[in-house]
């Protein structure tokens, strides 16, 4: 018994030495994070350098690191929280100092788009990771429980029928997704739910809403409305601004904190419903709360970028392949890999057409993520024997 | 069914009384916990007839009680009912006099642990991490692991004998090794009552013995009240202090192993002709042939068609199948 005690002491010491954040320094997780950051920086640099007003990479670097912005809290706040709030925080009433032309283009137009892409990537990655654990299904995505179809239907309704409400489209789309999720949950509920019931209810609601959404296209009399609807329903970052950063960032922070806090519950869900229950988890409450967090993250991304497909499906896969199934690491990994995929895809969406055809037009980023995501998924499927098992 | 009870195996009479009635007086059993199921009616939403229709069972505090019976007899269902995994249509389950249904889920999980028949986990989780999950009911929402958690985990790993596996990934283990890891997890839960659903099924002989030895250690060195479902009647007789035999959702006999494992009971409950020899390692059962005609006692009750849904439900196919297909 004394031998056992000393072993126990050693194990305890090892655990507490790891402490609350020891697991973060897992070499695999660190390399995933570093590689993702490299992709985001490279993609971001391409994004800020090229466009209608092209500059060299050196110029772009200078503009990004322009001390006139970076060292001036008024400018930073102006971008991050908006002009009004900036003025009430700093008490500054005069004109902001003028910026160089390149700095203005980079900071005012091109950089926010990179940030929005990163935020959307984070949200979709985390949301997908949660849904894959909650439904215990590797093919689950943020949109599996009706979120995308609800949002899509509301987008079409707003654009086609209630044109006057277009200004509130982001909010309406996010709300539509959340309401659809609640409907799915209500349909699946019968003395509690199960992963399969939830997924089936999601399919049912999705089918009906998608039909309604497609039907609404017939009532669109303006090609502009249709294009706008397509942009929203395939996901696009065109024209995103600091406004979108400000809109999504607070919810993203909330969703990320909650999902990290819930990672132990997610790990337990992976052991199966019976085990989780016998270990004393109130499984229905936990499942609903975690789904709610995932819907919040998905809704935040829908509000700024529309329905970007595939990111939420692939990112958790990639991360799980790289760092293992421990959800603390999976969530943190998604916070890095999601932005990398999204920023990378947006380079293609924004500049791809002009490279390929010379035309100065952009395609919705959702098309690029689908084009990149499909083949990558195929590759995963080919390589892995036990696809579909979590 | 209640009338049937009376003319079941006569073994029921002498031992049955002190078992079923022993709700309050844990006779000299120190800190060990009681587990009582009273007039339990258990069934599945998919089947109209309940699998268990009004049975009472009391686990002897600090001892090992084995549930035995043929496929479809309701033993797993009864165990699920006792573990609060299946809400009873009627009746109640009491742990130390408290109704499990009204207890907070985590409080219950600190009192009562269950090892299910089928357990799934991600392949890449390590054994140590799996065992740490057993500490879930002892931790608050944001609490990190304490020294007490670490101690419980170490003891559980040592008792389950899977120290050499601690850093292995569960997906790389054999079936027997996996079972040891899962047992370590429920041991780390550190409960007063432990319910095990066929812990030795599908294991090779070595791992069967390992599991048996773990349960023996629990019986000899701790106050844990163990209820275990076993397929192997010899194994059950060797391991258990008390045995409960079920057939068609009824408790046919209960008592000490020597009194339960008899040729008559094997004929009645398991429908086999067998030789039973008492040895120093407990009774040895040599099955000779299957009995094809229905035993007279239950011929009036059981029609062959009615047996089918009950057995499907007993194997847990209805509720578990839905979950498993979502994997």
Automatic annotation (TrEMBL), chain A:
Q: Which CDD domains match?
A: TM_ABC_iron-siderophores_like
Q: Does the keyword Protease apply?
A: no
Record Pfam families: FecCD
Mind telling me which SUPFAM superfamilies this protein's record contains?
ABC transporter involved in vitamin B12 uptake, BtuC (SSF81345)
Task: Supply the alphabetized keyword list.
Answer: Cell membrane, Membrane, Transmembrane, Transmembrane helix, Transport
Principal subcellular localization? membrane
How does the UniProt record describe the way this protein sits in the membrane?
A: Multi-pass membrane protein
Entry keyword Transmembrane helix: yes
Instruction: Indicate the family of this protein.
Output: Belongs to the binding-protein-dependent transport system permease family. FecCD subfamily.
Which named protein is this? Cobalamin import system permease protein BtuC
* Annotated organism of origin: Halorubrum saccharovorum DSM 1137
Automatic annotation (TrEMBL), chain B:
- Report if keyword Cell division is assigned: no
For this protein, the Enzyme Commission number is 7.6.2.8
The protein's matches in CDD domains, at most eight in alphabetical order, are given as: ABC_Iron-Siderophores_B12_Hemin
Its localization reads:
Cell membrane
Q: At the top level of its lineage, which domain of life is listed?
A: Archaea
Q: Which Gene3D superfamilies match?
A: P-loop containing nucleotide triphosphate hydrolases
| Keyword presence, Glycoprotein | no
Q: Which is an annotated Pfam family here?
A: ABC_tran
Q: Which SUPFAM superfamilies does the record associate with it?
A: P-loop containing nucleoside triphosphate hydrolases
Q: Which InterPro entries match?
A: AAA+_ATPase, ABC_transporter-like_ATP-bd, ABC_transporter-like_CS, P-loop_NTPase, Siderophore_ABC-ATPase
Q: Which UniProt keywords apply?
A: ATP-binding, Cell membrane, Ion transport, Iron, Membrane, Nucleotide-binding, Transport
Kindly list the GO molecular function terms attached to this UniProt entry.
ABC-type vitamin B12 transporter activity; ATP binding; ATP hydrolysis activity
* BP GO terms, sorted: monoatomic ion transport
Catalyzes what?
A: an R-cob(III)alamin(out) + ATP + H2O = an R-cob(III)alamin(in) + ADP + phosphate + H(+)
A cellular component annotation (GO) from this entry: plasma membrane
Region annotated Disordered, chain positions: 1-41, 281-327
UniProt topology in membrane: Peripheral membrane protein
All copies of the ABC transporter domain together span: 35-273
Free-text function comment from the UniProt entry: Required for corrinoid utilization. Probably part of the ABC transporter complex BtuCDF involved in cobalamin (vitamin B12) import. Probably responsible for energy coupling to the transport system.
| Matching PANTHER family | IRON(3+)-HYDROXAMATE IMPORT ATP-BINDING PROTEIN FHUC (PTHR42771)
Cite the record's note on assembly: The complex is composed of two ATP-binding proteins (BtuD), two transmembrane proteins (BtuC) and a solute-binding protein (BtuF).
Q: What is this protein called?
A: Cobalamin import ATP-binding protein BtuD
- In its UniProt entry, the species of origin is given as Halorubrum saccharovorum DSM 1137
Q: What is the lineage of its organism?
A: Archaea, Methanobacteriati, Methanobacteriota, Stenosarchaea group, Halobacteria
């Amino acid at each position: 018994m004394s031998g056992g005690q000393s072993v126990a002491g050693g194990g305890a010491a090892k655990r507490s030495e790891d402490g609350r954040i020891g697991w973060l320094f897992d070499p695999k997780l660190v390399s995933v994070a570093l590689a993702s950051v490299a992709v985001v920086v490279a993609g971001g640099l391409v994004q800020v350098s090229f466009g209608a007003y092209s500059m060299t990479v050196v110029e772009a670097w200078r503009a990004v690191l322009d001390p006139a912005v970076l060292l001036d809290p008024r400018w930073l706040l102006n971008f991050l929280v908006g002009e009004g709030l900036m003025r009430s925080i700093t008490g500054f009433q005069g004109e902001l100092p003028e910026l160089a032309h390149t700095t203005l283009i980079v900071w005012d137009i091109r950089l926010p788009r990179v940030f929005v892409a990163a935020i959307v990537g984070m949200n979709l990655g985390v949301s997908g990771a949660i849904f894959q654990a909650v439904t215990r299904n590797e093919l689950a995505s943020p949109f599996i429980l009706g979120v995308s179809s609800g949002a899509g239907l509301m987008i079409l309704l707003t654009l086609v029928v209630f044109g006057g409400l277009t200004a509130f489209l982001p909010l309406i789309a996010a709300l539509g997704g959340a309401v659809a999720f609640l409907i799915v949950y209500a349909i699946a509920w019968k003395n509690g739910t199960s992963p399969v019931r939830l997924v089936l209810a999601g399919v049912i609601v999705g089918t009906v809403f998608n039909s309604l959404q497609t039907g609404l296209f017939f009532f669109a009399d303006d090609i502009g409305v249709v294009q706008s609807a397509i942009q929203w329903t395939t996901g696009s970052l065109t024209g995103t601004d600091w406004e979108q950063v400000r809109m999504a960032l607070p919810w993203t922070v909330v969703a990320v904190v909650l999902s990290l806090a819930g990672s132990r519950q997610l790990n337990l869900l992976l052991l199966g419903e019976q085990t989780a229950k016998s270990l004393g988890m109130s499984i229905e409450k936990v499942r609903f709360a975690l789904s709610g967090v995932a819907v919040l993250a998905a809704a935040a991304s829908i509000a700024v970028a529309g329905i970007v497909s595939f990111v939420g499906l692939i990112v958790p896969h990639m991360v799980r392949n790289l760092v293992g199934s421990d959800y603390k690491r999976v969530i943190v990994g998604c916070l890095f890999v999601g932005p990398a995929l999204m920023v990378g895809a947006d380079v293609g969406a924004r500049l791809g057409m002009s490279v390929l055809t010379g035309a100065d037009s952009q395609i919705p980023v959702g098309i690029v993520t689908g084009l990149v995501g499909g083949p990558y998924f195929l590759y995963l499927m080919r390589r892995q024997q036990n696809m579909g098992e979590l | 069914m209640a009338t049937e009870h009376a003319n079941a195996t006569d073994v029921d009479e002498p031992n049955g009384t002190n078992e079923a009635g022993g709700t309050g007086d844990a006779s000299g059993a120190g800190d060990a916990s009681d587990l009582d199921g009273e007039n339990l009616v258990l069934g599945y939403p998919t089947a109209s007839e309940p699998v268990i229709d009004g049975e009472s069972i009391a686990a002897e505090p600090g001892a090992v009680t084995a549930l035995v019976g043929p496929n479809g007899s309701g033993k797993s269902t009864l165990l699920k009912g006792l573990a609060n995994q299946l809400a009873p249509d009627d009746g109640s389950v009491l742990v130390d006099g408290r109704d499990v249904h009204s207890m907070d889920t985590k409080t219950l999980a600190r009192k009562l642990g269950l090892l299910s028949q089928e357990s799934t986990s991600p392949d890449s989780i390590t054994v140590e991490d799996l065992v740490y999950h057993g500490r879930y009911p002892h931790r608050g929402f944001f609490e990190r692991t304490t020294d007490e958690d670490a101690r419980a985990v170490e003891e559980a790993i040592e008792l389950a004998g899977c120290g050499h596996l601690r850093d292995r990934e569960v997906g790389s283990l054999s079936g027997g090794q996996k079972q040891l890891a899962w047992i370590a997890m429920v041991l780390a839960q550190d409960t007063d009552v432990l319910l095990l659903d066929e812990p030795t099924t599908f294991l090779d002989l070595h791992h069967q013995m390992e599991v048996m030895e773990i349960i023996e250690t629990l019986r000899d060195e701790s106050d844990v009240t163990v209820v275990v479902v076993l397929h192997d009647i010899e194994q059950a007789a060797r391991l258990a202090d008390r045995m409960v035999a079920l057939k068609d959702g009824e408790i046919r006999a209960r008592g000490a192993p020597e009194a339960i494992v008899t040729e008559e009971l094997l004929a009645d409950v398991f429908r086999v002709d067998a030789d039973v020899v008492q040895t120093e390692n407990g009774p040895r059962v040599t099955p000779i042939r299957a009995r094809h005609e229905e035993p007279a006692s239950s011929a009036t009750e059981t029609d062959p068609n009615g047996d089918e849904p009950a057995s499907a439900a007993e194997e847990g196919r209805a509720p578990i199948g839905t979950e498993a297909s979502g994997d």
